[in-house]
Each structure stands twice: as structure tokens, then as C-alpha cells.
Amino acid sequence: MEPDWIDQVVERWSALQPALPVDAYHVTGRISRIAARIAQREDEVFGRYGLTRGDVGVLSALRTSPPPHTLSPTQLFRGLMMSSAGMTKRLDRLEQQGLVKRNPDKNDRRGVTIHLTERGRRILARAVAENTKSEATLLAGLSAKERRVLTDLLREVLSRVEPAAGG
């Protein structure tokens, strides 16, 4: 296989500082570049639906939550690792677009719950379907076994940098 950008960067750093342990960069550099390309593609796909990746995160959290598919703003901002103010701004925009609705919380007079509207559900379904097809093309050259191996390796790396699910 031809050397790529990462190989060239690692080679140059190795020449500049021979004692620098740059081996990990062969992996992390490629993961970073892949993540940037995936983000770029997602921005293009979701943008066609008037959405951002962050919007899709909120809508997906609502859609995949247990019935009745409602969450509080606090659950959303904690789960999506956002600030409370950032979540409020995002929810305001999604509500203005008719994609989510705020309802009084039946268990807390001061609170609200957020639910996905039918319009939000339809747009999310189309955006996710298109994005899924786009992302599948990234792995089209790998066999099923190679995808499973890659999945397991990436899960292991991710478990070292991110708290356990629900943590």
C-alpha cells in the first residue's frame, strides 16, 4: 500500500526527533482524519434536511429513548455532553422548525419534557437513512470479518478514552 499523509508526517517527526515515540500516531492520526471526513459527509447529508449533526443527536436521543420517547432537557444535555444553555438554544431552534415540542412535566410542575413531533420523526428517518447509506460506502471495501475485527478494536480503544455506557 502507498504511504499516506500520516506515514509522511510520522516519518518527518521521526527524522526531526528520533527518540519521539510516534507509533501511536499511525492509528490516532488516521482515526482523526477519518472522523473529520465522516463529520464533513454528515454535515452535507444532514444539511440537506436543514439539520446539523448536533440536531440529529438530539432528535435521535428522543427517537430511540424508551416509550413514550420523551426526555427532559437535563437528560438531553447530560447525555449529549452539552451545556444547559447550548441545549436550550438547540431545543428552541428545533421547536421553531416544528421538529420537537415542549410539554409540561407531569411529575414536576416546574419542568418540561421534550418529545419528537411527527414532522421531526419523518425528517429524522429520511436523514438517518441517507446518512447510513453514505457511511456504508466508507466500509464497502472491507469483508464482514474485517468489519467485525475493526469494530472490536475500535470498541477497545474507545473504552479507554470514554466512560462506560451510562457512566
Q: What do these coordinates show?
A:
The chain is mainly α and 167 residues long. The protein has helices at residues 5-16, 25-47, 53-64, 73-79, 84-96, 118-138, 144-161; strands at 70-71, 100-105, 108-116. The protein has a 3-stranded antiparallel β-sheet. The model has no long low-confidence stretch (mean pLDDT 93).
Reconstruct the topology from this structure:
Blueprint: H1 5-16, H2 25-47, H3 53-64, E1 70-71, H4 73-79, H5 84-96, E2 100-105, E3 108-116, H6 118-138, H7 144-161
Antiparallel strand pairs: 1-3, 2-3
Helix pairs in contact: 2-6, 3-6, 4-5
CATH hierarchy: architecture of the largest domain: Orthogonal Bundle
Radius of gyration: 20 Å
The proportion of residues in beta strands is 5-15%
| Number of helical elements | 7
Shape field: elongated
Q: Determine the CATH superfamily of the largest domain.
A: Winged helix-like DNA-binding domain superfamily/Winged helix DNA-binding domain
Q: Uncertain regions: pLDDT < 50 for 5+ in a row?
A: none
Report the end-to-end length measured between terminal Cα atoms: 40 Å
Helix content: 55-70%
What is the C-level CATH assignment of the largest domain? Answer: Mainly Alpha
Number of strands: 3
**CATH topology title of the largest domain:** Arc Repressor Mutant, subunit A
Structural class: mainly alpha
- For the biggest β-sheet, the strand order reads 1-3-2
Report the oligomer: single chain
Order of helices and strands: HHHEHHEEHH
